[in-house]
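Thread title: Can someone regenerate the structure for this chain?

I was given the following input by a collaborator and told the matching structure tokens would be attached. They weren't. Posting the sequence so someone can regenerate them.
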Amino acid sequence: MIQPKIEITSSKFGGGSLVNYHAIERLPAIVNAEANGMINFVFVSAIGKTTNFLEEVWRYYYWLSETNQANAKEAVRHLDAIKDFHLEICRNLFPKEHDIFKKVENKFNVVSKTLQANNMRLVQYEPRDYSWIVSKGEVVSSMIVSDYLKLKGYDNFLLNAKEIVKTHGTIYRNAEIDLVTTKCCLLNNLRSLNPPNGQLNVVMAGFIASRAQTCQTVTLGREGSDISASVIARLLSEIAGEAGMSPTIKLKFFKEHAYHETDPAVDSKAFHMKEVSFD
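Best answer:
Regenerated them for you:
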């Protein structure tokens, strides 16, 4: 019996490929050309250096405020600058009445209010707070990308990475993905979607997951969006195979300097790769 074929793409856009609104303006053309299978997942990192900037917010607040409460106020000031940076990008991409502005403001305002509410107490180091704060970069980036793609005619579903990618244990940073639970959550989410034209297009934040038992936010470490895209590609392949289909998987990485087949710092002849075969 011949198995029906299905093409699946999992594309990851790093911060360097989303560095400003000009870069995001190019996304619809790239996605339409590259993510053209029956199932297409687009994973996004935080825009530009947002992860670094949010780490600074966390350092100001949780490392320094025990001895100097003014640093908590400095953390909020840094956070406001990050929010303004994202809103300025939105102003160049969306009509002024678009609801993306309210969504972006709300995400950052929740963090700001939490920082200000805790300003007068002794703050203890908490790894879980690192992930909660720093993950906002990917959350906001995925909202902007999803809404901009829709604005340009690329229908897509924005899925919450925390509801799908689950991890083992109690680690909040550099966590290890629980493949069995993640596969179950992925399948349940796919069953709930009803793409209008039969082609399923999904946008998700990379880097982010949640603990399987508590649903608390965890992060997958630096370059964690690569892990997100790779793991979901593997699980989509398994799900398609178990459904009696013959999947073709394309795993693609879009970065400022692309991917290399070896470390360019070690081998000067390392060449760029845009697409990685999934075997």
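The CA atoms of residues 8 and 236 lie 8 Å apart.
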